[in-house]
Design brief:
eight-stranded parallel barrel
Amino acid sequence: MRMTKSLEGYMKGVNLGGWLSQCNHTKERYDTFITKEDFAVIASWKCDHVRIPVDYNVFMKKDGTFIPEGFKYIDNAVSWCKEYGLNMVLDIHKTVGFHFDPSENEVGFFANPDYQQIFKHMWKELAHRYGNLGNSVIFELLNEVTSPSFNETWNRVAVETIAEIRKIAPNVKILFAGYWNGSIDSVKDLVPPPDENVVYNFHCYSPLIFTHQAAPWMAGMPTDNYHVPYPVTYDDENVQRGKPAYEIMCIPWPKGTLEEDFESAWANGMSHAEKYGSPLYCGEYGVIDLADPKSTLAWYKSIHAAFKKMNIGHALWSYKSMNFGISDEHYKDILKGILELD
């Protein structure tokens, strides 16, 4: 049985998506979408951490000039985590020149040295502010690098950025993921961790034909009366109807159910992490609110069994709204079952 080192303090978490990222960037949104009371709820769920996606616009202009008042929202999160005994992943979800969603119109990061310099400048400031809080805060360099063509540049920029962070915060843990939106299949193409506090991470929504079924933003995905059950049966009529989208969206998945496929599908990423003694962390996983709740719970049971077997820390996507919010009405009958999983 494969097993990585534990990422202590980050074994069971929840994302606060839509608060400081993937949102209309307004003060009202920042002040009301997530509040102190939400941190209390998450702590009551026996989680040990939250992952907080943050877009650069919250605290920085496109030219790299900082917006001092924007940092107060991260400061609040740090304070509320401390009050309720939670740790925190600080995830840069959008940087100048890059976002995984093309509709954000952030392009050019991997070809533009100026954008890369702003990225390092941003992380140096974050390191000054949050890099010496012990294990209570982990840095995640950048969310969901997309194309494999970015791999060489991304490895270089990541290593250079880590070196800048280390001048300020020598011991803070740093998460580092690969292309294909942070797929575990790309972990094998990441450079060796520059030091023992750099941790490989990945996202898992496999198979997307189930977890993102009928999602209107997915290219080629049918939306009319489109339902896929879990366990996924690949000869199911609806799965076949969505096959073009499946082929667009993800690496071909073994033709079975995830009950048996997770461990084998994650083997390369596991081997790479083991080779360098790195823990492995899954920063996002979840099921769209268009899926059948019973199938959704079955999928969660499968992936959590794999997490437990392979000692992988994880943060569920997401706390509320965002089409995946487990505190929303759609999930009310299965929430208890999800929260009982390790």
